[in-house]
């Protein structure tokens, strides 16, 4: 299959090269793997899908990809634009519908929805993976996320730890991989501008969390630290 115009760009090639380095370094993919890829509709997960599809087509490891989106019934989530984009790419997007909005409201978690939302999404993705006999879950977390997760754990008393690149999941029946773990967010964005990605807003609490959330605060802190300490 020929490369598309965006796939021929220097930025996308660099993205694939670094993702492949992480995949090889942490032994993420094996022949016969069935990979469920969490597709939120954001830039990171969409670019991960592009990279993983590129590796599937042109790499040495034979694996299958099964993109999945959890529709949490948020009024702001435009699932159709995501479905249309995936169809144009030739991807079969699996959609799991779940009324997460009602649960967040019923439990009074509107001020801090991330914890319950992530648990609900994770549970639905694991259920989908079980149904499709997927043994690997791929997520679009990048190096900035790894650093922020470390700071979150440190400041909330969780100790010196962060998300791993290739870790056992669901009592060892699956593996959770993060092929972008060595890549800064800026590198993903540089490649993404060459793709006509849909503008999908999956979280109705985005503005609220950007202004007041701990994670957003630590993301801004990380930027400040990098300005003072280059290559941090």
Structure description:
With 232 residues, the chain is an alpha/beta fold. It has a single domain (6-204), classed as HUPs (Rossmann fold). Helix content is 48%, strand content 12%. Strands 3-2-1-4-6-5 form a six-stranded mixed beta sheet, with helices on both faces. Strand 2, helix 3 (79-89) and strand 3 form a beta-alpha-beta unit. Helix 1 (10-25) crosses helix 2 and helix 6 (143-155) crosses helix 9. The radius of gyration is 18 Å and the shape is globular.
Could you give the topology of this structure?
Elements: H1 10-25, E1 34-38, H2 43-58, E2 64-71, H3 79-89, E3 94-97, H4 100-106, H5 114-131, E4 136-138, H6 143-155, E5 166-169, E6 174-177, H7 185-192, H8 206-212, H9 214-228
Parallel strand pairs: 1-2, 1-4, 2-3, 4-6
Antiparallel strand pairs: 5-6
Short description:
The chain is of the alpha/beta class.
Distance between the termini: 39 Å
Residue stretches low in confidence (pLDDT < 50, at least 5 long) are none
Instruction: Specify the number of helices.
Output: 9
- Provide the CATH architecture: 3-Layer(aba) Sandwich
Structurally, how many domains make up the residues?
1
**Whole-number average pLDDT?**
88
CATH class: Alpha Beta
Give the biggest sheet. Answer: 6 strands, mixed
CATH-defined superfamily: HUPs
Could you say which structural class the secondary elements and strand pairing correspond to?
Answer: alpha/beta
- Estimate the global geometry from the Cα principal axes: globular
Estimated helix fraction? 40-55%
What's the gyration radius in Å? Answer: 18 Å
- The total count of strands amounts to 6
Compressed to H and E, one letter per element, the order equals HEHEHEHHEHEEHHH
Query: What percentage of amino acids are in beta strands?
Result: 5-15%
Please name the CATH topology: Rossmann fold
Strand order of the largest sheet: 3-2-1-4-6-5
């Amino acid at each position: 299959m020929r490369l598309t115009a965006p796939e021929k760009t220097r930025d996308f090639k660099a993205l694939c090269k670094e993702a492949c380095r992480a995949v090889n370094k942490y032994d993420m993919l094996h022949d016969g793997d069935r990979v469920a890829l969490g597709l939120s509709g954001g830039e990171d997960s969409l670019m991960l899908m592009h990279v993983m599809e590129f590796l599937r087509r042109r790499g040495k490891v034979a694996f299958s990809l099964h993109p999945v989106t959890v529709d949490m019934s948020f009024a702001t989530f435009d699932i159709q634009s995501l479905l249309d984009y995936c169809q144009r790419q030739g991807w079969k997007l699996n959609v799991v519908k779940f009324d997460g909005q009602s649960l967040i409201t019923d439990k009074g978690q509107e001020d801090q929805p991330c914890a319950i939302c992530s648990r609900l999404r994770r549970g639905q993705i694991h259920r989908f993976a079980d149904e499709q006999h997927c043994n690997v879950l791929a997520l679009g977390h990048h190096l900035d996320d790894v650093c922020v997760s470390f700071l979150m754990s440190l400041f909330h008393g969780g100790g010196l730890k962060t998300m791993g690149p290739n870790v056992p999941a669901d009592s060892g029946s699956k593996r959770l991989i993060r092929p972008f773990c060595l890549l800064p967010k800026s590198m993903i964005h540089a490649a993404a501008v060459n793709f006509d990605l849909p503008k999908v807003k999956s979280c109705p609490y985005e503005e609220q969390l950007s202004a007041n959330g701990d994670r957003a605060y630590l993301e801004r802190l990380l930027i400040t630290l990098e300005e003072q300490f280059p290559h941090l």
